[in-house]
Amino acid sequence: MQAWRVHENGEPGEVMRLDEVDRPEPGPGRLLLRVRAANINFPDALLCRGQYQIRPPLPFTPGVEICGETEDGRRVIANPALPHGGLAEYVLADEAALLPAPEALDDAEAAALHIGYQTGFFGLHRRAHLQEGETLLVHAAAGGVGSAAVQLGKAAGARVIGVVGGQQKAAVARELGCDLVIDRRADDIVAAVKEATGGRGADVIYDPVGGDAYAKSAKCVAFEGRIVIVGFASGSVPAPALNHALVKNYSIVGLHWGLYAQKDPASIARCHEQLTRLAAEGAIKPLISERVPLKDAAAAVQRVADGTTTGRVVVLPDGAAR
């Protein structure tokens, strides 16, 4: 079979190589899945660079999220077991962790439903306790992680403010349903949020960016607001001033979604039921900006790494259903 493999750490476009390899052999508790679609996530770029919290042995195949097919024909969502990641024709996955692909979504959409939407759901509901009528601010609102949070926020009845970089991404955020879009390249984020909220600020802030985005968040969070720390796509990890959190009475809430697989795996299945229902109702639908063939996967991962994409970029192996 064909599989993209990283033989040394570096930029995805430079270190990923399309190899001909044997199909992986499933051990106890694991199944072999045919990949129908593989969604590219920012952690795939970090894996290539050797900067992710998990460092599989070289060579490895990136790709942490797929829609696949079991040998008996079931369409499922899975997180492939590294080092046999999803940018390949076949993967291994833990049988107990497989989730049914929602009928309302095609393969590419189903592949993009899992990590980003689970992260958004846990972050907004379990960690931040977002309430109907509250104001939600989403950084990188046109990206893969941010677009999921925008849709989930709207589904929860929140007023959603999206922060993006550039007019093209601003147009995408508006199409996603943002009530207000702020272009960080042209607008004053703090002033715009305060004006839009009558000086109160945002009740919940969803931050997958870090760096300057976090600094702006602390300046425009509401009394008893919650800043949800999801990731650091900017490459800069902020150092919060805890005296500021004390003075303004806001919470800084961390979210590492992957821990739930260890600490409370049943919660992931319950969340998937909610996401499947929302997808069936049309309240959420992953934004797929590109569907690329397997041969172009390395360039696609590099675009995600560079932050030039909107929504999700999904790789479709030859012969895979659209």
User: What are the low-pLDDT stretches, counting only 5+ consecutive residues below 50?
Assistant: none
Percent of sequence in beta strands: 15-25%
Shape, principal axes of CA atoms:
globular
Series of secondary-structure elements, N-terminal to C-terminal = EHEEHEEEEHHEHEHEHEHEHEHHEHE
Proportion of residues in helical segments: 25-40%
Span of the ends, CA to CA: 20 Å
Please name the defining characteristics of this protein.
single chain; 322 residues; alpha/beta; seven-stranded mixed sheet; six-stranded parallel sheet; globular
Note down, in words, how this protein is organized.
The structure is a single chain. By secondary structure, the protein is an alpha/beta fold. It contains 12 helices and 15 strands. Helix 4 (114-127) packs across helix 5. The protein is globular. The chain starts with a strand and ends in a 6-residue tail after the last strand. The relative contact order is 0.17.
Secondary structure: elements and pairs:
Layout: E1 2-6, H1 12-15, E2 16-20, E3 30-39, H2 42-49, E4 66-69, E5 75-78, E6 90-94, E7 99-100, H3 107-111, H4 114-127, E8 135-139, H5 144-155, E9 159-164, H6 167-176, E10 180-183, H7 189-196, E11 202-207, H8 212-220, E12 221-229, H9 242-248, E13 251-254, H10 260-263, H11 265-281, E14 288-293, H12 297-306, E15 312-316
Parallel strand pairs: 8-9, 8-11, 9-10, 11-12, 12-13, 14-15
Antiparallel strand pairs: 1-2, 3-4, 3-6, 3-15, 4-5, 5-7
